[in-house]
Structure formats: structure tokens, C-alpha cells
Amino acid sequence: MAAAAMSCAASLRLISFKPTLFASSVQYPAKALILRPLKPSELPSYRRTIITFQKISTGTVRPPSASSSPSSSEDVQPIEELPPKLQEIVNLFQSVQEPRAKYRQLIFYGEHLKPLDPQFKTRENKVEGCVSQVWVRAFFDDQRNVVYEADSDSSITKGLAALLVQGLSGRPVPEILRVTPDFALLLGLQQSLSPSRNNGFLNMLKLMQKKALHLEVKGEEDSSSGESLESSFVPTPETNGGASVVDNDTESKPSFVEDLGAEDSDSGSDVVALGGRGKRIREKLEKELNPVELEVEDVSYQHAGHAAVRGSAGDDGETHFNLRIVSDAFQGKSLVKRHRLIYDLLQEELKNGLHALSIVAKTPAEV
Amino acid sequence: MEGVAMKLPSFKSLAPNAISIGHRSFSRVRRSSSLSVFSAASSSATVATSSESVSLGHRVRKDFRILHQEVNGSKLVYLDSAATSQKPSVVLEALQNYYEFYNSNVHRGIHYLSAKATDEFELARKKVARFINASDSKEIVFTRNATEAINLVAYSWGLLNLKPGDEVSLTVAEHHSCIVPWQLVSEKTGAVLKYVMLNEDEVPDVDKLREMISPKTKLVAVHHVSNVLASCLPIEEIVVCAHNVGAKVLVDACQSVPHMVVDVQKLNADFLVASSHKMCGPTGIGFLYGKSDLLQSMPPFLGGGEMISDVFLDHSTYAEPPSRFEAGTPAIGEAIALGAAIDYLSEIGMPKIHEYEVELGKYLYGKLSALPDVRIYGPRPSESVHRGALCSFNVEGLHPTDLATFLDQQHGVAIRSGHHCAQPLHRYLGVNASARASLYFYNTKEDVDSFVVALADTVSFFNSFK
């Protein structure tokens, strides 16, 4: 019984439940299915509490505070910011109106989740606060994208886990970290987003993001790439220049992350005109590293509470930068060594109010 | 305190195709056989001389506005009263009334409002005492809830009286609130906790408990009615056993006081605890019953105002019980509202409530056990074994969380899934979690029917994936 008022041209009939329907990628213009404003005042502004990275492979940076498009709700993460597979999943669920069919869909996802080897059902991998048991495992593939595996003894929870696994696997860490649980609202499963102890879905997502971050951090200690790492909670002891990674609490923002590892071929537009510090950084790096490519982006405005204003003059406002450097100077150096090199060059700035750098450091051959 | 004695029609005589007409006011169930007429002597039952008799559940539903709503597009069927009960309007009015007309701090003031508040507060204490047949209202200590009451005994009586090697006897089916405080206190005192397991009827093994009680035992802490197994322990017997060796007995009566007559004189327990929110009263208030001489011998639990006699810089002297154990401003309005809840229950009559629930509980058990692949925990009901009106169960191949979620989302049926604050019990039973449907006197046969239909639908939905 197709719902009478389906807004999309749904040739997708889900009465007879054919698995093949989901194997194919569903083509929907994403914007046509943009969410209805969902009582923004009631939604937790989750965005501000998770680690903020920006500048990922696709799309422009969207400052969290401003919302220019009338169709998107200010506090709910727009669908375009989600990893592509997750967008697909959300669209799929939105096209299914009938609640039972939604559940069927969800459970179908769960049933087709790759089983998790019992050896990974450890305490470390267990999601807190689920009435059912849920485990999540995360590791890097050889391109430093995070791969997830999960399992649960409850069908619905397994389905939710499968959504997250499918939606987030194979994606780079920063993209994963940007995802907020808002998208669950779009699924129409009446998934509560209240951050209670019992919210399995929320806690699942948090654990997956925490594990992604830890993989990132642990990865820095590891100079040989291609080795798959299990995420662990041991923070890297090696930090530099007064900045440190906070990894005990996904709620807090780390002030410093090394090598986003993203294969980005992004436009590198300097959204913000560089102020004094930004210019100095650029000069220094250019002089010392003779880069083939150099991007210095001031993203201080993204960090609420740092009293940073977009493009403000004066060093006080310039606290966070993204650097993308392609240079022969990195030849033969491990990731750690490359970053150390950059810090050493920017010692002065780090002493005087530069809070954090997000660095992509490659040799020309690696690009 | 006897309630009104009314003859309730038993369910067996209800025609299978009985129709109930809505739940807004009381609904009437049509029956083909002749009916007994009863006279309504209480204000809560306003059916006067109807020639049709109405079940208790139907009669009282109008007093509970919260039950008349839709959730997720279906009528609400509330089957989680073991977690918390719903409150009748008179209780809500009593609370509102207190704040609107005579809110004032108790025991301290001289002025009119505070005198009135104090009177009502102490009257509520008397009502509680009468409700459980305590010999004196001084034997009732108001606490935040039963959990706090047990902690009070643990920290006050326990720390003073438990020595290394002393034993505290518990059952594996205890609620966490009657396990953890003893763990905390035994760590501090060197006492040892001993647990009795279930017998083949899936009831705590009373024979083993008897054997376990020895001169080393200082305390036996057990539930009256289990919130998972629905079983009822023979408290009187256990108390005799315990007193023989000089041990005290604490009874967790959270699931019994709301549902049946509980007489502490008959039970002869040393301590008894219950929570208001499970017996139609508000949250935030509960009580500890303790025998006078016992409470007299106990040191304070929490320190502060109210519980003192004189305060100097270097020491203080303490008040007599119950004040000794009621530090700070109590939940005055809540206590008064609890008193109103007790009045409400008493007007209906606890024997009548119990009788109704035994029937309805049997009906629930019968319909649930008739479904394939359903495993209900606890004893089977029989002539000698009366279960409480709740069923914890599991369906083969279906996780309780999935079950409860689907029931709620698709059918508006509210049950609980999880370990129900009884993890050791679930571990013993070999499961991670169970689903639980629990009834109270405002539930009806139709509630049970709706639940069973919804459950069957849920099971078939999830089975379709296999």
C-alpha cells in the first residue's frame, strides 16, 4: 500500500520486498528531499559539541552559525554534508513512507551486515548504554579511510548499526567526524536523539567517531603506512608546540590534529583573506619548504569561544589554520617528521597565540 | 483498614465477545449471564444502581486522565506499572492544593500556614502507618524512595551492627537497590553476602534460605513480590527463621504494598520499605518502616536540620526517630499527595484490588503462555501459587528491545525491556534482557487483549525476516 501522498516520483514500490531494490543506487535529486524544518529549537545543537574539521573533498565550507538557505533548518545538519552513501541511505528511507516498510528496510540492512568476528566483541568495542548488546570495530584501509564492522543481538539496533557502517565506512576521518546524529531524524524512524544513557543509536555514532579519531591519532605514531590498525584509546604521547589531542571525550574539540589523510583535490579557495599571522605563515613556509603547492586557510572563525571573527585583523583572531603543502622537502620523511618540520618553522607563531594546525603534507609524487 | 466490600464479577463469566464502549468514562461490558448488583459506597465508584456490573479497571479509568491518549497513532496501552504507576486526579489535586493554599515549611514555623502544612504532613505519616498496620506513626520514616530507605538501613543500622564475618542473606532475584547498598556496606564492615538461588519452580529457594540462616546471619534482606518473577515469598516464615538466630529482616515491599494488604504486625518484619510512585503516589517520596526499638538504637544517616536536638560547635545531639532520619526539608507536598493516594486505594479497598489483579494477572499469563515461542519467567500460577500481576518473558529469536520498540511504535503498547534492575537474576536465567508487561488495577481485560494481539503481530513481523 503505497502511501497516497508520496512527494517523490516513487517508482520504488516496497510492498513486495525485493532485496535488489536496495542494491542499486537510488537516484534522487538530493535537494528535492530536503528535510522539513524540524522544530529547530528542540534539537540539540550537537554540531557545536563535536570536533570541528572542515575542508573535506566536496562542497564548500558551511559556517555553523549562518544559515542562508531558507529550506534548511539552522540547527539540523543539511543532508549534503553527509558522506555520500549516508545521503543515499537517508534518501532511501525518506522515499518509504509507511513505518513498517521502514522497519523492514532497516532490518534488511542489519541482516546483510557482515558478521563481526567474536574476537572483536570486546569491552572496548561495546557501545555503552544499549539495552541490547552492540559492538563496533574500526580500522584503517590502506588509504587511511576508516572501515567499520558491527554487530548486535537486537534486529533494530543491528539495522541502525548497519546504516552507520554502510554510511560511514570507507570515508576519511574528518568526514566521519562531521556527521551529526541529526540525519536519524530524516530517516523517519522516530529515533530519539536525546543524549540519554540508553540512547543506543547516539552512543553508537559517538563510539564510531571516537574510534575514528583514535585511529587518526594512533596512526601518527606509525610511520609505515599500509599497516592496518585497530583503534585504541591510548593517546599519542608525542605532541608538539603546546597543542595536544584530547581524546577522552568526544564532546570536546581537539585543538590539534595531524594529517587529515584525506585525498582531497579541493578547490583550496581561501575563504578568508589572510591576516598578519596567516601571511607570515605563508611566507615562512614558502621560504623554507619551497612548495609546489601551498594553501594556508584561516579557519579561526569556526571555533566558537575563541573570540575569533572571520577575517578579523590582528593576530588575536587568528588561531586555527589549515595547511596543505606539497613539497619535495618532505621526501623520505615520515608523517611525524614532516609535521615536526612544520611546527619547528612556526615555533614563533605557536608561542604567540596560534592554537592549532590541520596539516596535509605531501611530496609531489604522493599527490 | 478495610475498604468497601463489593462483589466483583469474575472474568470467567464474561462473554468472549464482550464489547467495551470506549474508555473515556467508565465502559460497560455486556454480559449474557445474570449480574450481581453492588452498591457504590465510595466516591471513586460512581456507578450507583446500574444493572450491569463494571470491572474495577473500567470503573477507575476515568480517574486517570493520562491513560486516555494516543501514542504513535494508537491508543495508549500502559503496561509498565511495575516501573511506575499512574496517578489519579485526586492525588494530583492534593499536590496542587498544597502548593496553592498552604505551602509552608513543616515543624519549624508558628504561623497558620506552617501549622497546617505540619498537620497535613504528619497526617500523611499516620495514613502510611495505618495502611501497613504499623503500631505507631513514629515507626514511619519518610525517605526519597525505597532505594534511599534501604540505604538508610545499610548505612545506619548496617555500619553499626555488621562485623567481619557476619552474614547478610539475600536472594539472586533482588532488585539492585537491595543488593548494592549491602555490597557497599559489607566492603566497609567485612560482612559477607550470601545469595540463595532459584528452585525448579523458578522461585527463590526458601528451603535453602532456611538452611543458609545461621547464627552468623545478622540480616535477611528479601523482596516480598519479585518485579521479574512475580513470585511471592513467605515472609512470615522467613522472619521466624531469622529471629530464631537473632537476625533482623528487611522486606522490600515495593511490588506488594501497592497491590495487596501488607500488615507489618502479621509479617513481623523488622524493616519494610516501599516507594510512593509505585502506588499511585508521586515520585520523590517513599518510606521506611522500622520497629520502634530498632530505630531508637540507630545512629543518624544524613545530617542537617530537623534531625537534631541541640547543635554546638563541636558536637550535636540528635532527635528521636523518625525525625532523626529526616534531615532537611522533606518532600512535603509529595508526602501529602501520598496520603491522598493511600486514601484513594483504601476507598477501593486493597483486598478488592488484589482480587482483581489476581484474576487479570491470571488472564495475562494464560494468554501470553498460549503464544508459541513465549517463555515466561517465574512460577506457574496455581491454587497454591499466586503470581503478581506481571509477566517477564522472552520470545524465541526476538530481542526484547525489538519487541518493545515495535509494540510502542506500531501499537502504542508500553512495556519494559531490559534487565529491570535485576542483572544477577537475568544472568542466572541465562539471558541478557527480558520484556515485561505489568498490570495495575486501572488496566482492563481489553488492555491485555490489545497487548496480546500486538505481540502476535510483532512476532510475525520479525519472523518474516527469518
TrEMBL record, chain A:
Biased composition (Polar residues): 233-242
Gene3D superfamilies: 3.90.1010.10, BolA-like
Pfam family, one: SufE
Coiled coil: none
Region described as Disordered: 58-78, 218-271
Domain Fe-S metabolism associated as annotated: residue spans: 91-210
Signal peptide per UniProt: none
Superkingdom of the organism of origin: Eukaryota
Biased composition regions of type Low complexity, renumbered to the chain: 63-73
Official protein name in the record: SufE-like protein 1, chloroplastic/mitochondrial isoform X1
Source organism of this protein record: Camelina sativa (False flax)
Automatic annotation (TrEMBL), chain B:
Name the UniProt record assigns to this protein: cysteine desulfurase
Start and end residues of each Aminotransferase class V domain: 77-451
Cofactor(s) demanded: pyridoxal 5'-phosphate
EC number per UniProt: 2.8.1.7
Keyword Transferase: yes
Domain of life: Eukaryota
UniProt cross-references to InterPro entries, sorted A to Z: Aminotrans_V_dom (IPR000192), Cys_dSase_SufS (IPR010970), PyrdxlP-dep_Trfase (IPR015424), PyrdxlP-dep_Trfase_major (IPR015421), PyrdxlP-dep_Trfase_small (IPR015422)
Catalysis performed (reactions): (sulfur carrier)-H + L-cysteine = (sulfur carrier)-SH + L-alanine
Lineage, uppermost ranks: Eukaryota, Viridiplantae, Streptophyta, Embryophyta, Tracheophyta
Keywords, alphabetical: Pyridoxal phosphate, Transferase
A Pfam family the protein falls into: Aminotran_5
Enzyme category, top tier: transferase
